[in-house]
Amino acid sequence: MPPVVISVEQLTKYFGRTVGIEQISFDVRKGEIFGFLGLNGAGKTTTIRLLLDLLRPTNGRAVIFGLAVLKHSYEIRRRCGYLPGNFTGYGHMTGSDFLSLAADIRGTVPPLQHGLLNRFEISEDTLMQKIKHLSHGTRQKLGIIQAFFHKPELIILDEPTIGLDPLMQEKFYALLRDSKKEGCTIFFSSHNLAEVEKVCERVAIIRDGELVALETLDGLKQKRYRRLFISLRERVDHLELPGAELLKHKDLDYEFLVKGDMNDLIRRLSHLPLENVIFPEPDLEEVFMAYYRSERHE
User: Fold this and answer.
1) Per-residue DSSP letters for 54-104?
2) Where are the alpha helices (DSSP H) in 107-216?
3) C-alpha dist (Å) from residue 137 to 162, 166, 201, 242, 257
4) Helix (H, G, I), strand (E, B), or coil: what is residue 173?
5) Are the beta carbons of 26 and 214 closer than 8 angstroms?
6) 4-221, which class in CATH?
7) CB contact at 8 A, 283 and 220
8) How high is the pLDDT of residue 35?
9) What is the mean pLDDT of each run of 10 residues along the chain (298 residues)?
10) pLDDT of 113-122, one tens digit each?
11) pLDDT at residue 229 in the model
């Protein structure tokens, strides 16, 4: 089994009486693309800032590369790449000057030699413009380049595809896969469920500062809700299905959200005048929203 790169134990951060995160624990292993999911304000960015020692925890601890973050943050950051949320760069600098500064700080060669500028279609003319005059998408591409160009062991990404068009998003996902093949570990914080489903192997779901799920994608889908679509040949009064919540009903068409014993459900379906049944594989969005809808009831 690959070694653990990030280990978080009972990590907690309070801002006065406000909970940032509370007693969250998880591990991320070498070469893994780990998805960290949550709605805005759930605690994703707070967790990242604690991992990078940009905030200090109220309780608990984080260990990266086997080093305690509180004691070895400089060494840890030296071996990391980081893209913060809402990346803006230094607006008064040109793109070229900014990337040269990043290379000087890292003590490495300019990123032009790594092919990232070509991959993300950053032209020489664009690099000569001040960052404050660039589009949101172009600034985001510069942020991605500065996080990846020095070939770090660990890359921490906070909402990395905001502002990217679909073509650039696909190029970014390809970069993640290439980096994984080279042994890089990637911590990928997002609320974009579709992209996490494309590239991540395991996910943690954070809600209101608490970790409510830590699973492989397949395991998460099997445990949570699925949608069921049925069409009837004739009307049935007061249709109810065991372990299912009715979402929509129009004429003879029904949509349910299902959780529970599939045997009971199938037995009930077998007694209905069915015209059609569709029971699709759940996507991650349905799984994700199920936690935000159902955990309060549980």
Assistant:
1) SS--SEEEEEETTEEHHHHHHHHHHTEEEE-TT----TTSBHHHHHHHHHH
2) 116-119, 124-127, 136-148, 166-181, 193-199
3) 7, 11, 27, 47, 37
4) helix
5) yes
6) alpha beta
7) no
8) 95
9) 95 95 96 92 94 96 97 94 91 92 83 77 93 94 93 95 92 95 95 84 91 85 79 91 89 87 86 92 68 56
10) 568 999 999 9
11) 95
Centre a 10 Å sphere on the Cβ of residue 85 and count the other Cβ atoms it contains: 16
Find the angle CA(52)-CA(57)-CA(59) to the nearest 5 degrees: 140
Domain ranges of the chain: 4-221, 226-281
Burial of 184 (0-12, 13-18, 19+ CB in 10 A): buried
Output the six-digit token pair for 93: 């600098």
Tokens representing residue 84 in the block:
């913060």
CB 288 within 8 A of CB 193: yes
Say how far apart CA 141 and CA 244 lie, in whole Å: 44
Tokens 């290379």 belong to which residue?
103
AA letter at 185: T
3-state secondary structure of 245: strand
Alpha carbon distances (Å) from 153 to 34, 65, 119, 148, 220: 14, 9, 21, 10, 28
Amino acid symbol at 147: A
